[in-house]
Amino acid sequence: MTRRLPAEWEAQDGVLLAWPHEETDWHADLEQVEPVFVEIVRQISRFERVLLVAPDARELRTTLQMAGVCLDRVQIFEIPSNDTWARDFGPITVEDNGQVRLLDYGFNGWGLKFASNFDNQITRGLHQAGAFGSTPREVVGLILEGGSIESDGRGTILTTAECLLNPNRNPHLDRRQIERVLAEQLGAERVLWLENGYLAGDDTDSHVDTLARLCPEDTIAYVACDDPEDEHYEALQRMEQELKALRTAAGEPYRLIPLPWPVACYDDEGERLPATYANFLVINDAVLVPTYGDDKDQAALEAVGQAFPARDIIGIDCFPLILQHGSLHCVTMQIPKGVLA
């Protein structure tokens, strides 16, 4: 059996999101965050389909129509949700002998930090509702979040030891056993581990999609802290040295693109928020990049454009998203070509 985890920049059928509502942690910030979700849906639907999970399809349809979103490429499914982090509870799609297959991993709220009883059932609910047509769904007895792994589509997986080896996920598995599982289930021929790097305010135990992203042509875009006074400086300097030491499957160094370091953001209680430009979403013919109303936003768009020169680079103000400690990539999960009904 030959499996392959497609790269995010390969052709897609659509993107999955879960809409914020009163029963989520967004209840106090719905006025701020709903326009962000509307804009994400608007931009994705220009290029491909959008699957939305929401408590009330009619109400959401009205909201999107009033905002001028064309609904021709939008499908809404009334399925319960705890929260909006589709990257981590959505299906991970693999090619299995050339056929697409949805892997439905366990989601435990990033190590039992948050309720996940509804979110853990969303892939199942979408499959039962026919969202994925005849694409088979495989339930996997492992805790694994989409934000914790990056794939180049050619057998390389990039991840962080802080997340995948954390005892709050799969305490019965050590590093070698996890590598074996990733090989069997995702076709990983090699796993690149980052031992350093974190963001204050991040609940995910250092998901790689907040720190370093695999890009086409053996490129890695990564967050680079240039402020020696910042608490992240030493850890991210060590991560940068790790990235410089990594080698491609052909034995060559990666082309590295540093992403700017935004000014520190804080919530009303003075807690630092995990603003990161690495949390971009690659879609058909475009890349959606989170911005934060920061002087570094334009430089971040240009840096991402270096990694994806043939695509539209579209900034979306995601400051409201980091109020709940995530960003643009975290609230989306791409659905590769060949999956949707």
UniProtKB/TrEMBL annotation:
Entry's Pfam families? Answer: PAD_porph
Report keywords, A-Z.
Hydrolase
InterPro entries found in the cross-reference section: Peptidyl-Arg-deiminase_porph
- Organism superkingdom: Bacteria
Q: Does the keyword Hydrolase apply?
A: yes
| Record protein name field | Agmatine deiminase
The record lists the organism as Desulfuromonas versatilis
